[in-house]
User: Which sequence fits this backbone?
């Protein structure tokens, strides 16, 4: 017993010492990994800092190219685009369907991006409707849902402007897909 | 020492039962406790020591490279039009990109140093001896792989520095007999440098080499574990376990390595703070040179410092031709590796071990010496006093370097001639070093400018940053001017002291701030018009313009001061270089005076006047880009000097079947540069800055 009780403090001391050494080792080793991991995470999350900027009206076409016949026509949206380090001049950045109803001056535009999962909605002239080739969402020529549809909402309409000289422009925006509500991406 | 074998079982008492249960569950499925046990409780004979930390720091350095490298990979794009651009984006636009790249870049260098220390420790301690021979060889393979990653990583930014260094390295690989050219072509990805050089180097750097390295590292570590740590003799302390004593030492060493790396990255920031200058985070960490341009000479080309000794070593074989390069770049380094490979066998004998130690020290010392020599040669001009060689320069100038004339100038005194030759060599070294230093400076300016251009709001065109640099008047103008114009025209600020000597050398006008207010004032100044800065050294020195300026224009009866001012501002406005609006009223008056056929208009066609083209230059749009392009293209054109052109070549006109001396793009670049019309970032555009010239 005496021998044991004699040894115990020494044991405790060794234990405490090795605990402290171990803790210090973990601390030092941990600190050493902070800069590389920190820098890696800091840079990795850089994309979250970026936004596509405020939506602007972009020139689309001339009113004469949109006859008042109620038929949607596809037009590319042309704009200067920045992709990370590259600046593109006047490039097609997306597509819209534009139509003008008979006897109307009002021009309506629908984004060609499917609100379900972001595929490119096609115009099915024969069937007289829009159809998404990915999951078969169907929409009327006004963009309304044809039930049953995997799409949670109608096609996204875009604001249109027609100038006095007849230039049609559209407020180009991207929306979150898959939601019932139409929410613009920032 | 058996007590230390059981800490994990005893410590379990402190762990809550639920956690213990989960731990037990996991352990019964994975056996992780035994794994940790075997990883941490390796016996260290003689206890923990600082000399054993190098291997661990290398593993740490490699892991750092993997972590930072993977995230760099997530933003890097390997192609000739996107590599520089994506690295620019990482360095200057991504949050923390400079730090990420800085750590990767500096840690790569730290790894080379740690490698050298590790090898030294292993050789000096004799740790390579039986039964650890194979592990030593594995270590050599690892070393070669690390060097390979350093070499391939250097190219990836596709800047001038990496591009030219890689050209040299791959050309040297081509010197290997028989298979050399094929090796070169395989590595380069074709007969020329481009997209596939980058994709291949990137695949090597981030794929093949690290994957192979991991494989060899696993083997290296498992053999290390199998044979145990080779203890440095004599052992004075009791044995200890790897955990926690040696782990602490390793961790402290890792932290120190990381601190040094961060210190290297952040030191310039500290210096900026002390100097009260703003910190540009993009300038911290790794450098990014100007985009690679095979058509642009790069006299500042040097390999990274840890390969500088090889670069210098090649100079030992100067004059040997390709054989020398083959010896210096392949045979000798190969033989060195070969000797290292044999070390474990040689080390079986005491003498052999001594040889190994001496050899390692000699190699490292040799590399150190060669590096010092290379640095000394390159930076010699920084401490050498060139003015002490003024007499040598004088003799060289007067004799044109002709050895017989030099001998005559020195009175055929052999001792004097030998002394002269000696000092001439030194002077040449200074000149070479000056050329290198100015090339480094130029490279820095080019890099800064490329970054400035890439940062424009329009960003980089899809054709890449090189096209931006090539179409930049500020970058190309001075080069084209030096090549094609400077043999006659000066381009020096006339307000600088002692500049008249520069003008005297030329045979045509000084074009500094051509078309700007001070240039026009000088032209119309009777004291200056016939000086070397204007028409003095040309055939026009006694022409009508000179006599007009020195007689009529100087006559206060004929030309009132206000009218003279008006002419000055009208001409500057014609050149499109008038700053501010306070003088616009004068411009109208000036234009009338210029068009007046009793005044300027008697010789010069301008505005509504009916003076015929051909006698004196057309002043419509005088000094504008279009006008300058016109006169450079063809000074003998009706608008300029059809009959009185004095020696100026028609730069844009080709002789039959040939090409013009300058393309129309090049002429436009010169014109824009002369007129100071180039992109300036908004922040540095200060109102009232001198006519656009920095």
Assistant:
């Amino acid at each position: 017993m005496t021998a044991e009780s004699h040894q115990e403090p020494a044991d405790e001391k060794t234990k405490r010492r090795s605990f402290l050494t171990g803790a210090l080792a973990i601390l030092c080793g941990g600190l050493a990994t902070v800069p590389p991991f920190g820098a890696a995470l800091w840079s990795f999350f850089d994309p979250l800092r970026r936004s596509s900027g405020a939506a602007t009206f972009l020139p689309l076409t001339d009113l004469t190219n949109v006859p008042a016949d109620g038929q949607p026509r596809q037009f590319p949206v042309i704009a200067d685009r920045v992709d990370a380090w590259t600046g593109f001049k006047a490039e097609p950045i997306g597509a819209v369907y534009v139509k003008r109803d008979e006897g109307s001056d009002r021009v309506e535009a629908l984004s060609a991006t499917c609100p379900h999962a972001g595929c490119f909605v096609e115009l099915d002239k024969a069937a007289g409707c829009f159809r998404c080739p990915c999951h078969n969402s169907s929409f009327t020529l006004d963009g309304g849902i044809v039930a049953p549809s995997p799409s949670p909402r109608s096609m996204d309409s875009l604001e249109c402007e027609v100038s006095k000289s007849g230039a049609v422009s559209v407020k180009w925006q991207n929306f979150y897909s898959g939601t019932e509500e139409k929410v613009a991406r920032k | 020492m058996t007590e230390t074998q059981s800490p994990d079982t005893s410590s379990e008492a402190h762990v809550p039962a639920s956690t213990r249960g989960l731990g037990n569950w996991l352990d019964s499925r994975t056996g992780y406790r035994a794994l940790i046990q075997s990883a941490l409780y390796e016996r260290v004979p003689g206890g923990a020591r600082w000399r054993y930390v190098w291997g661990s720091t290398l593993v740490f350095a490699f892991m750092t490279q993997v972590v930072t490298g993977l995230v760099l990979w997530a933003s890097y794009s390997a192609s000739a039009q996107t590599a520089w651009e994506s690295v620019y984006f990482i360095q200057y636009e991504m949050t923390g990109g400079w730090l990420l790249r800085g750590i990767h870049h500096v840690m790569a260098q730290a790894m080379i140093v740690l490698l050298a220390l590790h090898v030294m420790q292993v050789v000096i301690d004799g740790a390579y001896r039986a039964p650890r021979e194979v592990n030593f060889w594995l270590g050599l393979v690892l070393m070669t792989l690390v060097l390979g990653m350093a070499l391939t990583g250097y190219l990836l930014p596709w800047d001038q520095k990496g591009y030219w260094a890689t050209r040299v390295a791959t050309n040297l690989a081509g010197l290997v007999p028989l298979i050399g050219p094929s090796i070169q072509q395989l590595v380069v990805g074709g007969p020329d440098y481009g997209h596939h050089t980058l994709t291949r180097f990137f695949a090597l750097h981030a794929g093949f080499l690290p994957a192979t390295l991991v494989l060899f590292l696993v083997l290296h570590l498992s053999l290390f574990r199998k044979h145990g740590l080779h203890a440095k003799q004599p052992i004075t302390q009791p044995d200890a376990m790897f955990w926690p004593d040696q782990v602490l030492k390793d961790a402290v060493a890792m932290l120190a390595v990381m601190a040094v790396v961060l210190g290297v990255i952040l030191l310039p920031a500290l210096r900026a703070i002390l100097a009260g200058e703003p910190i540009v985070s993009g300038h911290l960490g790794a450098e990014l040179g100007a985009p690679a341009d095979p058509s642009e000479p790069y006299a500042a080309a040097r390999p990274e410092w840890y390969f500088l000794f090889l670069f210098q070593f090649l100079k030992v074989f100067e004059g040997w031709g390709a054989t020398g390069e083959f010896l210096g770049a392949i045979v000798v380094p190969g033989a060195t590796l070969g000797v290292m490979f044999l070390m474990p066998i040689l080390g079986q004998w005491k003498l052999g071990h001594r040889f190994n130690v001496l050899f390692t020290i000699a190699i490292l010392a040799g590399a150190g010496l060669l590096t010092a020599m290379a640095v000394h040669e390159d930076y010699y001009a920084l401490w050498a006093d060139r003015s002490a060689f003024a007499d040598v320069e004088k003799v060289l100038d007067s004799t044109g370097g002709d050895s017989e004339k030099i001998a005559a100038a020195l009175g055929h005194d052999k001792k004097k001639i030998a002394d002269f030759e000696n000092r001439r060599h030194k002077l040449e070294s200074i000149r070479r070093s000056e050329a290198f230093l100015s090339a480094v400076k130029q490279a820095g300016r080019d890099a800064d400018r490329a970054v400035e251009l890439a940062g424009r709001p329009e960003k980089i065109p899809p054709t890449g940053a090189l096209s931006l640099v090539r179409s930049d008047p500020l970058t190309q103008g001075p080069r084209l001017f030096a090549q094609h114009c400077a043999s006659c025209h000066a381009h020096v600020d006339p307000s600088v002291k002692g500049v008249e000597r520069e003008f005297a050398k030329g045979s045509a006008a000084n074009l500094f701030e051509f078309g700007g207010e001070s240039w026009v004032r000088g032209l119309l100044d009777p004291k200056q018009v016939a000086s070397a800065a204007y028409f003095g050294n040309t055939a026009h020195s006694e022409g009508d313009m000179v006599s007009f300026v020195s007689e009529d224009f100087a006559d206060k009866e004929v030309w009132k001061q206000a009218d003279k001012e008006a002419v000055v501002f009208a001409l500057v406005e014609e050149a499109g270089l008038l700053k501010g609006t306070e003088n616009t009223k004068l411009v109208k008056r000036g234009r009338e005076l210029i068009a007046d056929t009793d005044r300027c208009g008697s010789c010069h066609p301008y505005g509504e006047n009916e003076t015929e083209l051909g006698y004196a230059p057309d002043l419509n749009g005088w000094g504008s880009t279009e006008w300058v392009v016109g006169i450079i293209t063809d000074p003998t054109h009706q608008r300029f000097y059809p009959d009185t052109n004095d020696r100026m070549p028609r730069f844009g006109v080709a002789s039959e079947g040939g090409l013009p001396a300058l393309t129309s793009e090049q002429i436009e670049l010169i014109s824009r540069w002369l007129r100071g019309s180039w992109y300036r970032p908004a922040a540095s555009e200060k109102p009232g800055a001198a006519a656009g010239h920095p």
Summary: DSSP finds one helix and ten strands in chain A. Residues 2-47 of chain A form one domain. Residues 1-7 of chain A have pLDDT under 50 and may be disordered.
